Each structure stands twice: as C-alpha cells, then as structure tokens.
Amino acid sequence: MKVIASQSHISYLQCHACKKAYSPTEIASISTCCGRPLIARYEFNDYFPKNALVSRPATMWRYAEMLPLLDIKNRVSLGEGFTPILKLQKLATKYSYRNLSMKDESYNPTGSFKARGLSMAISKAKEFGVQSCIIPTAGNAGGAMAAYCASAGIEATVVMPTHTPKIFKDECELFGAKLILVNGLISDCGKKVAEMKKSGSYFDVSTIKEPYRIEGKKTMGYEIAEQLNWQLPDVIIYPAGGGTGLIGIWKAFQEMIELGWIDAKKLPRMIVVQAENCCPVVDTWNKKQPNCLQYVGKPSIANGLAVPNPFAENMMIEVLRDSGGIAISVSDQEMIMGVKEIAKAEGLLISPEGAATWIALQKLHEVGIISESEEILLLNTGSGYKYLENIV
Ligand SMILES: Cc1ncc(COP(=O)(O)O)c(C=O)c1O
Prior knowledge:
Blueprint (H helix, E strand, L loop, with lengths): L9 E6 L5 E2 L15 E5 L42 E3 L1 H7 L3 E6 L9 H14 L4 E5 L3 H13 L2 E7 L4 H9 L3 E5 L3 H14 L3 E2 L8 H5 L1 H9 L7 E5 L4 H16 L9 E7 L4 H6 L27 H11 L2 E5 L1 H15 L5 H15 L8 E6 L12
Parallel strand pairs: 5-13, 6-7, 6-9, 7-8, 10-11, 10-13, 11-12
Antiparallel strand pairs: 1-2, 1-3, 4-5
Helix pairs in contact: 2-3, 3-4, 7-8, 11-12
Pyridoxal-5'-phosphate binds next to helix 3 and helix 8.
C-alpha cells in the first residue's frame, strides 16, 4: 500500500508475545507467529512536542502523530474524544474525598467510549479498502461500529446477545447494520463470528483481535494527562470487560513517558472493576484460577462487563501488576444503587459500568486500599440512557 500524506509516526506492529515486527502498511488482525495481539509501535525520535496540541480541534485526532492512520483522507470521524473530566463535588463532600472526578465518556458519538476504538478501526478499514466489517459485541461496540461504517460507506454486521436491551439493537439497525442475535454472552457471539468468517469476506473487529481499536481507546490516556495539566491522578478506576480501554490508557502513559510529556515516577494505580456475575480477571488476579479460559460467566446489567474469556486477559493482569493496581467485583444491585446515587447527587445519568467504579471506590476506601486524600479518577464509559429499561 502506498503511503500518501502521513502525519502518523507509526513505525511497525509488534506481536505482544514474541515481539516479531509486522508492516504497518498491511491490514492486520492477530500475529501469524503466535496468534496473539499485535501492538502498534511508534517512532519517538520524530519531533512531537506537547505544545503542538494547543490549537488543535478537541477530538481524539489531536494526537494523530501517535495514531496509526497513514492518510488523513481516510479519517472517519463523528467528533469522538476530548470528553470532559467532571468534579464529583457533592459526593466528594459527602464522603470526604479530597479530589474526586470522573472522565465522562458518555459525551462520545453513540454514547460510549467505544466510539474512539471504532472510529480508529473503521478509518483503518477504509484505508485498506475493506468492504465489510463484522463484530461480536455486548452492545455499545456494535452500535459504534454500525455508526462509523454508515459514515464510511462500509457494510456492517453486528452479532449481539439476544438479552441485550432493545435500544442497542435498534441503533444498529438504524445505522443500517445487519443484526444477528445469539443466545448467550459475547463469547458465544465471537464463536458465531468465527463461523461466519469461514464463508464470508469480513474484516473482524473483535476486541484486541486487530491492532487499531486499542489505539483509539488509548487517547483517553492522552486526554487524562493533557486535561489534568500533565499531572496524572493517584488512582484510576476502570470497568473492564475485554480490556481495550485499560490496556490502551496504560499504553498511552508509556508513550507519553517516551515523548517526554509526563513523569515516569508518577503513574496512577490502575484498578479494574468487574461485575460479580462475570469477573474472570478478578478471579485470575485473586489466584482462584490460572487464567480465564474455562471461566463461565452470567449476564450482567452492565452488558459491557459480561466478557467471560477476554482474549487479552494477560495484558490486563500486566497492567495491574505494573501499576500496583488491584481487581475487584461489584454486584448488579450495587451498580443500580450507584447509578441512582450519582444521578441524584450530581445530575449525571451514567452507565452501570461507570457506576461500578464508584461502588468499587467505596469498597476499596473502606478497607484502606484507597485513601480519601488521594486524587481519584473514575471512568464512566457510557451513557445511562441506553440502560434505562433495566434500571428504573
Ligand atoms: C459501557 C461499557 N463499559 C465498559 C466496557 C468494557 O470495555 P473494555 O473492552 O475496554 O474493557 C464496555 C464494553 O462493551 C462498555 O460497553
């Protein structure tokens, strides 16, 4: 493929297991050497000072040098990124937290942080001339892919659990996607996608089975640093399913250290929260199982957390270990309480996944793992409006 006008500083794609390098100018899925995720690596000697950002538009594309899109004309954007970091002042006062805020990803197109990864992946699909994309989804990623495919003029097939709330299905169809429903969880949808790929020609956008979504998601990490004036918080609490956001945010921090934008000595502890109904990473972290391969999960009101066998579990565990973090689970009932409490106290209607971070904070504070004097950042990954049929 001929590179025309690249702003990207991408250097190569790298197998996460054996570190073998792959070309960034050919469409990629998982590594052919080890069957593991491919990770985008960049050239850090090229000049990219952080003050170059000052006059750029407030979207995730302001970090274009650190994104893998080769030709700007292939960008498929609906205005994703640069979501606000909001102070949770009432809750902070009530519970005596010195510095409590939330990065609110519900401001993204299609109402969730999935917009970032899918904007990136569908831009790359367009760059490589892909005609048809397919995704197994717990809900939000499917809606985002359908929207970006509509904008790009690419055919979209979304495979989603039957029990997912109706609004997630309706939005896919409104965006013109073909919707396939499967009895089971996202892992069963993944099996259906694998089967369909045998007879059709699709670009498979499954979580971390291509190297681009993570690059879109990592822009949350760049934004957290930029919006907090390049001083990272002490703790970030993140609701993890497939783990793209967690891995992406941590990747952004490593890249910003290389760029000389942040201090390597002050990185946050990354805390994973999962649903009690489906918490494979928590169980692996607590050594209840060697890994998630045999884990059997149940549905959760937080659809995005019902991922029983995340492909990149070992990468999530690495982030927890490297950052001094921890993994914890919360129940569906607690998430509903959290949604209601935050709505009443702060006027924010957040997703149950986002509310899980608030409940996790209280539990970890109670046992002394997080102190009220720390700077705490919660991630609300999606809009609560899509979940109302299960909440009120
Ligand atoms: C609202 C929401 N939060 C969190 C997640 C988990 O995302 P990740 O794959 O980054 O762990 C999802 C995934 O579907 C989601 O929709």
